[in-house]
Amino acid sequence: MRAAGLDDTYGAYVDDLPAVTLASLNMMSMFGLNRRLVGSIVGHLAAYEMTSSIPCRLYADGLRRLDFPTDVTAYFDEHVEADAVHEQIAARDLAGSLAEDHPELLPDIMFGAASCLTVDGWGGAHILEAWSADSSSLRTRASS
Amino acid sequence: MSADHEPATITPYPDGPLLVRGDVELHAADGTPIPSHRRTVALCRCGLSTLKPFCDGTHKPAGFRTED
Fold first, then answer.
1. What domains appear along chain B, each with residue ranges and CATH number?
2. How far apart are CA A3 and CA A13, in angstroms?
3. Do A84 and B60 touch (CB under 8 A)?
4. B13/A82 Cβ within 8 A
5. A120-137: pLDDT as tens digits
6. Is the minimum CB–CB distance between B66 and chain A shorter than 8 Å?
7. CB neighbours of residue A62 within 10 Å
8. Cβ–Cβ < 8 Å for B36, B48
9. Which residue range or ranges hold the Iron-binding zinc finger CDGSH type domain (chain B) (predicted)?
10. A48/A89 Cα distance (integer angstroms)
11. Which of A112, A119, A84 is nearest to A98 (CA)?
């Protein structure tokens, strides 16, 4: 974040973020902090890892195109290769094994995966709509 | 016997890469070592990765399928 000229203080930008972005993070925390939702957090993690590698490559290529330094691109480059491994481990070994050992959790696993893709999709759609309208997706900047 | 020395394993994941776990050295065709700094690596099986020999997840949009 520092290499990109951003403030890396914890929560520095939280007031800039629209509710739809915070909803994604709050949902993940809710799944992770409640034992009864263990199937949902496992499904969420699997869906997240399964959809991470290719976007990380696009982020890294976009940052390179805009001449950001290696300090900025390295994080995303790292996650292309790392998440190609994590995808298999999270989906097959973790979520697959949990579903086999506890078939009653299968609906929760699928709910967590679907929630990840749906709610993160809302956040992504919000950002793309703002950019398509030539405005910021951030709430404090959109009004200025 | 060293506790941290386990035989390497190679696991083909359905519709996905080969996961290599353990202490292995990867070499290019000319014998040059291929640097790898993680304990588990995923090797491309669909032939479409932009990071070969490593997997970059491209098998999914490509619709790569295995026989299992």
1. 11-25+39-68 (3.40.5.90)
2. 16
3. no
4. no
5. 999 999 999 999 999 999
6. no
7. 12
8. no
9. 21-65
10. 12
11. A112
CB B43 within 8 A of CB B51: no
Rounded Cα distance between A112 and A118, Å, is 10
Residue keyed to tokens 């009653």: A104
Q: CB-side exposure of A26: number of CA atoms within 13 Å? A: 9
The token pair at B21 is: 């776990």
The span from the CA of B48 to the CA of B44, in Å, is 8
CB nearest A87 (choices: B41, B57, B61): B57
Q: Where in chain A are the domains? A: 31-142
d(C-alpha A128, C-alpha B9), whole Å: 43
Contact flag A53-B19 (C-beta cutoff 8 Å): no
**Whole-angstrom distance, CA of residue B48 vs CA of residue B68:** 20
| pLDDT tens string B11-66 | 999 999 999 999 899 999 999 999 888 889 999 999 999 999 999 999 999 999 99
Q: How many Å lie between the alpha carbon of A33 and the closest alpha carbon of chain B?
A: 28
CA-CA distance, A69 to A77, in Å (whole number)?
A: 12
Predicted confidence band of residue A138 (pLDDT cuts 50, 70, 90): very high
Distance from the Cα of B3 to chain A's closest Cα (Å) equals 23
Which among A52, A54, A88 has the least Cβ separation from residue B42?
A88
